[in-house]
Amino acid sequence: MKILSKEPLQPAAAKLLEDAGHELITINVADNQIVNYIQDNQINGLIINTSKLETSILDQLQNLTFIANTNLKECAIALSDKKQLIKLDLVNANAVSELVFAHLLNGARNLHDANRYMPLEGDANFNQLNTLYQKGIELEGKTLGLVGVNKAAEKVAKKAVAFGMHVIYYDPSLENVQLSIEILGNSISVNIPAKSKSEFLGEVDFISFHTGPVEKHWFGKDELAQLKPTVGIINVDGKGALDEVALVEYLDKNKLLFAGLDTFESEPSPEIPILMNPKISLSPNIAKYTKDSKMNMEIEMAKIIAESY
């Protein structure tokens, strides 16, 4: 079939499509011209990279065999003839899990704060800063609690085990989770125990949210009040799950150790108290977005198309 891609694909993805006998045409056709181009050139499938394509345009493309969106916010293939929508969000799971540990290590060793002060005072007050930042903590032997379990949470759990951490989770919809972890070619099975909310809050040293976007807080003042003051909280995968006002209050009162945030309740304009808090490691909603996840997503998309047609 003839496939139109509005942007160049990764070479490996393009090769998969061409090896399956498809003709790949790469032209960035303007949205207002795309319907005519597809009709004039007898295009069968469309690959786009956008967070939004006008509904009026999509309505005119119903005869296409498939439409694939390689935008990492969408990550889906609509197989029109099979009346099937295939989500590709699993390709982002490793990227999300690695950012969890980036923030976790930042907070545990005070790197986010040291990076603010070293450029300003490193030359004049090096020894004082050396003393100040010797109070970091290690991950090995600590308990990481996962709030919600998805593919990214499973990746986080595997990395936590590699760090020598204990892993528990709180998710009312699930029973115990069994993970298979491969180390040096050997597969081992690890049981991740489910906990009640009260058990979870009493046992954790660190928390990572994996609820996906939600409309109601999973953790607010009542939950934060039950945590040890040495707990660090990471939220890169649970927009809306954590009460940010309560988080700042407990950090300011030294009732929590640190936080790492990549998702915010008021995106794209996070609240100033969040942005200015020295105990919070920050990133601008980049958890899913890496060169590798983009490449992996395009390859997975190409495999599905090649296997389906």
From TrEMBL:
<keyword id="KW-0520">NAD</keyword>
<dbReference type="GO" id="GO:0016491">
    <property type="term" value="F:oxidoreductase activity"/>
</dbReference>
<dbReference type="GO" id="GO:0051287">
    <property type="term" value="F:NAD binding"/>
</dbReference>
<dbReference type="InterPro" id="IPR036291">
    <property type="entry name" value="NAD(P)-bd_dom_sf"/>
</dbReference>
<comment type="similarity">
    <text>Belongs to the D-isomer specific 2-hydroxyacid dehydrogenase family.</text>
</comment>
<dbReference type="InterPro" id="IPR050857">
    <property type="entry name" value="D-2-hydroxyacid_DH"/>
</dbReference>
<protein>
    <recommendedName>
        <fullName>D-isomer specific 2-hydroxyacid dehydrogenase NAD-binding domain-containing protein</fullName>
    </recommendedName>
</protein>
<keyword id="KW-0560">Oxidoreductase</keyword>
<dbReference type="InterPro" id="IPR006140">
    <property type="entry name" value="D-isomer_DH_NAD-bd"/>
</dbReference>
<dbReference type="Pfam" id="PF02826">
    <property type="entry name" value="2-Hacid_dh_C"/>
</dbReference>
<feature type="domain" description="D-isomer specific 2-hydroxyacid dehydrogenase NAD-binding">
    <location>
        <begin position="101"/>
        <end position="287"/>
    </location>
</feature>
